[in-house]
Amino acid sequence: MGGSELKYIKEAFDTNWISQFGNNIDHFENILEEYLGENSFVAALSSGTAAIHLALRLLNVEEGDFVICQSFTFVASVNPVLYLKAVPILVDSEPSTFNLCPNALEDAVKFCLQKGKKPKAIIAVSLYGMPFMVDEILEISRKYDIPLIEDSAEALGSKYNNQACGTFGDLSIISFNGNKIITTSGGGILISKSQITKNRTIYLATQAKENEDFYSHSELGYNYRISNISAGIGRGQMEVLEERIRARRENHVFYKELFESFDDLHLFSEPSAKFYSNYWLNVILIDGEYWDKKKMRSIFYENSIETRYLWKPMHLQVLYKDCIFFGSNISGAFFDRGLCLPSGSNITENCKERITRALYDYRN
Ligand SMILES: *Cc1c(COP(=O)(O)O)cnc(C)c1O
């Protein structure tokens, strides 16, 4: 935690606004709207998954509709498509950002059109904090007039062309789950381009209760609003966001220097000056004969250093095995060859020395 979170929680307790209304929610949304920049309308929700679910509802996704999704992601990006009994069409990644491949995306769009059914949405993800190829993906979204949902759950603070992630989609989402760069303990936001859409989001998130003096409902809603307590945590966390981004980007510089002397270990970095990543996680791809991912993981583990596998792409998951997939399994190769390295905002110099030592011990 950053320090001020308890103050805002106490405010909520002192004023007895501990539920889904209150000052913290209003402030948290305003702070984020200011942070994200012009024309961003933020609705605070109980999770990032809820935000994706509502984004699909706002786009009128219904049973049997096609929704195109990046395959290489955390399962929460795609599950809401199944909540609505729609059909996910999975698309591979390209190697420069790890994210949605524009060529495979266009193939998927053409396939859907040939089937006589225009996809209702494209879900593109900024995985590990790295923006996807925004210009190229937006071009396809506009060319075929298919709305873009930007899943920037992991990318608060990242930018593309100096514009904040969370502002590129027709609808965008950010998560404040415990594992993200900042957290509300659990929470998320849906970012839209109008006050009307924001209001409709909040309405759907509060059981679609209509403005009457009795309980009046003509649409299906959800219990997806954030609590005033969680929003208080979020207010406090926003005060330390810049500091967290700085620390994560410093971790990346450390890894960059470390891996310069290892030709067959490729650290995943910003492909050009257009991209600015919060480097939520640092990821390496392991090439060649010498390095073995499992062995490397166990050596780190013996030194009490945790590494993790990359997200396993959806087209390789049992849950999504019957989905149509476009691409050449580039993301599958990432999964086979990749490792996530310790990347928290609180990594000390001592930790960095231990990581360096473990790596050199393994090579020698
Ligand atoms: C965390 C995450 C989500 C879901 O967010 P929650 O707040 O945990 O529901 C969605 N997509 C991606 C890529 C994520 O990492």
From TrEMBL:
<dbReference type="Pfam" id="PF01041">
    <property type="entry name" value="DegT_DnrJ_EryC1"/>
</dbReference>
<comment type="similarity">
    <text>Belongs to the DegT/DnrJ/EryC1 family.</text>
</comment>
<keyword id="KW-0663">Pyridoxal phosphate</keyword>
<protein>
    <submittedName>
        <fullName>DegT/DnrJ/EryC1/StrS family aminotransferase</fullName>
    </submittedName>
</protein>
<dbReference type="GO" id="GO:0008483">
    <property type="term" value="F:transaminase activity"/>
</dbReference>
<dbReference type="InterPro" id="IPR015424">
    <property type="entry name" value="PyrdxlP-dep_Trfase"/>
</dbReference>
<dbReference type="InterPro" id="IPR000653">
    <property type="entry name" value="DegT/StrS_aminotransferase"/>
</dbReference>
<dbReference type="InterPro" id="IPR015421">
    <property type="entry name" value="PyrdxlP-dep_Trfase_major"/>
</dbReference>
<keyword id="KW-0808">Transferase</keyword>
<keyword id="KW-0032">Aminotransferase</keyword>
<dbReference type="InterPro" id="IPR015422">
    <property type="entry name" value="PyrdxlP-dep_Trfase_small"/>
</dbReference>
